[in-house]
Amino acid sequence: MSVRKTPLIIDTDPGIDDAVAIGAALHHESLDVKLLTTVAGNVSVDKTTQNALKLIEFFGTGTPVARGARQPLCMPYEDSSHIHGESGMGGYEFPEPTTSIHPEHAVNAIRETIMRSEEKITLVPIGPLTNIALFLAMYPELKSRIERIVLMGGSASAGNHTQTAEYNIYADPEAAKMVFASGLDITMVGLDVTSKATLTPDNVVKIRDLNETGNMLYSMFQHYRGGSLKTGLKMHDLCAIAYIVKPELFKTEKYFVDVESAGVYTAGTTIVDQKNRYNKEPNVNVCLDIDVDAFRTWAIECIAKAK
């Protein structure tokens, strides 16, 4: 009996942990990645687009790649190259990609993909939310054809880019504010779980020896500053894929969530109203905890399915 595949669009800014998430999604038997869209985030959109094309060619899936927003809606662009390196995916020598990018801007490519799909699409943003906000603003009539949004970003506690803000939300807080207010079914897979979802040194060695993909990821892990090879590497973006295919790994609660967009020190902070101080209707399913050992086992199994 064939497994029903969930159709996805992954909006991404590769990024070393993005590469892990993309590889897992492309090879999972229950997922059908229809499109990759790129956004300025970890590095510039030109670099994230090149990185996405390199990954698609490495994995040989032929998944279309569409270039998206070059900068946030309002605030100046600020990259995260201190975590991912100047190219975003240093450490492994990919050949220069020969595949052409999708002729449309990411926002229109998302529209086209949703319109063509017989089933509702799940959007999986694992970078800043600029493209998703633009899509929802330009094509609000297509909200009914979105199954849900499962995003990596935010925090119900502390930040990682500033004291209170997680990078993906901080990078474009106005966009994030628009997405959280969209009325769609949203799950926020934030730092409360992704900072715990590490691969240990032993896990990393095991991954290296699995296959060509494992060797590629191991090479890039040497340049990744999301944790360390000694204490454990944080697999932030992979958690969004894990939530879709294995939600039982996570403890979640539904809360009202909004984004601070005007604060001098707090821009990009996700306000997660766990004590119902604002008396607002809960709008976001918030991941609060994760079974770390089971996540590590699942992550290794996913990478083993790749080439």
Automatic annotation (TrEMBL):
In its UniProt record, which GO terms are filed under biological process? purine nucleoside catabolic process
Q: Which GO terms describe its molecular function?
A: purine nucleosidase activity; uridine nucleosidase activity
InterPro entries according to UniProt: I/U_nuclsd_hydro_CS (IPR015910), Inosine/uridine_hydrolase_dom (IPR001910), IUNH (IPR023186), Ribo_hydro-like (IPR036452)
EC numbers, comma separated: 3.2.2.-
GO cellular component annotations, sorted alphabetically? cytosol
Q: Give start and end of each Inosine/uridine-preferring nucleoside hydrolase domain.
A: 8-296
Keywords (A to Z) from UniProt: Glycosidase, Hydrolase
Q: Which NCBIfam families match?
A: PRK10768.1
Q: What is this protein called?
A: Ribonucleoside hydrolase RihC
Species per Swiss-Prot/TrEMBL record: Paenibacillus chitinolyticus
Taxonomy of origin reads: Bacteria, Bacillati, Bacillota, Bacilli, Bacillales
Instruction: Supply the gene name.
Output: rihC
